[in-house]
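[Meeting: bench + compute handoff]

Bench side (C.D.) handed over the final construct sequence. Compute side (W.E.) agreed to return the predicted structure before the next meeting so the bench team could plan truncations. Sequence as handed over:
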Amino acid sequence: MDGLVTFTMDSNAEIAVARELGVPGCGFFGQVGYGGGAACATVQHAAMAVATGAASVVVCYRALNERSGRRFGRVAARRDRHAHHLGVDNGWHYPMGIATPAATVAMVARRYMHEFGATSEDFGRVTVADRRHAATNPHAWFYQRPVTLAEHQASRWIAEPLRLLDCCQESDGAVAVVVTSLDRARDLPHPPAVIARRRAGQRPGPVHHDQLLPRRPGRPAGDGRGRPGSCGGRPGSARPTCGPPCCTTTSPRTCCMQLEELGFCGRGEARDFIAGGAIELDGRAAASTRTAASSARPTSTA
């Protein structure tokens, strides 16, 4: 391994990780701003490093420890008073009480409901489908523990219109993805996942990713980071390998708004798309991703 990539929400410095792993000479470090959807861009940066010869084996990593470390999602006192960009950004919404991820997403969710007539039950169907899928995995925390729409509706409010079961559980853990050339990957004991040509990208929205999103004229929801055009794809050709949202309404990895931005359905149509079973394991979304996977054009990176 001679390269490491993460994103700025991770508090484990690349040099520290290399030291603890005993890596003698990392020659490539990279960080992507923010978190959430930034995890996808780390793979893009690693693939570019391998393709250009800047590194031969790059590890993309992320780790979080909330039990003994910082609890993610808590209100950070005085965060609107920092003498840098965070103070400016947070100064717009901290005084209004919007100081957690759920509260941030709730603003956009409420606008989406106003614009397209979506309801809390529509969001709840995403939770029900996600938990049903997780319940089939013996390694999942919720193995054999699906939830019903009634249980979703009975869960307490976190930040209206989001309920407890609209939000992901707190998670401790770590994950790493190894990116190398296809030539090297051919000798590995397990078949590699090949990165298709021009199927990676990152793009911010025209405004800041936080509370300004509801102000985007003519586009009240979504953050723009999932548009197929940003990575050379076509609408509906995205190949999500998993889709656990941080909330059921809007995030780089969600179902409702990102299904629309990725072209699986039209704007405002996600609730009907989901209600019709499209995001089930045998649904239309899964079928379209299998078709896209069979037609993907590989590059030299895996």
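W.E. noted at the follow-up: The two ends are 14 Å apart (CA to CA). C.D. will use this when planning the next construct.
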